[in-house]
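look at this stuff:

>
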Amino acid sequence: MKFLTKSKIKDVFYTLPQAEQTKLLLAAVKSLLAYKKKMGEKWHFYSDPGGNHIISIGEYNSFEEYSQSLQSPAAIVGYMYHESTPLIEADEKALKAYVESYKAAK
């Protein structure tokens, strides 16, 4: 199962003292790098140009494994929103089935 996840820091995070923000952000980066090392080529993460979002695409064995991946040990996770979308491979067979489903609906 592949998931695309878009994560954003909640506005309340920015009400914390600067020193606390820095501490949480550094811990989050450390956690991201450790998770990338653990998952290898099954997980990729990106940032948007403004740095407001972390976008990740990961491959998981089950929804439970995916859910656990969102429970980061980094404390910043409590200050984040996550929006997730399951993905399917868009190969030729899948695209043909998609077109056929529209033909059948008529």
